[in-house]
Specification:
By secondary structure, the protein is an all-alpha fold. The protein has one domain (3-65). Helices cover 64% and strands 0% of the residues. The protein is built from four helices and no strands. It has helices at residues 3-11, 18-24, 27-30, 42-65. Helix 2 runs antiparallel to helix 4. The longest helix is centred in the last third of the chain and has 24 residues, at 42-65. The radius of gyration is 17 Å and the shape is elongated.
Amino acid sequence: MTAPARKSRRAHWNWLLLLPALGLMFPGIYARRSPELLGFPFFYWYQMSWIVLTSVITGIVYFATRDRG
């Protein structure tokens, strides 16, 4: 496979990095108290779950786009 085609295919993985931004961009959707999880309001545990998800997504993009050669 040629280098430009490989770079183009790898660039598609970078679109996954928009998910955390989109998930947190509209606080009106998740700015509520219920449902609670272990006593924490939804507003807090929703954001904390995005921290974990962002780490996973970043790892996926990193391993999918790194050079193996």
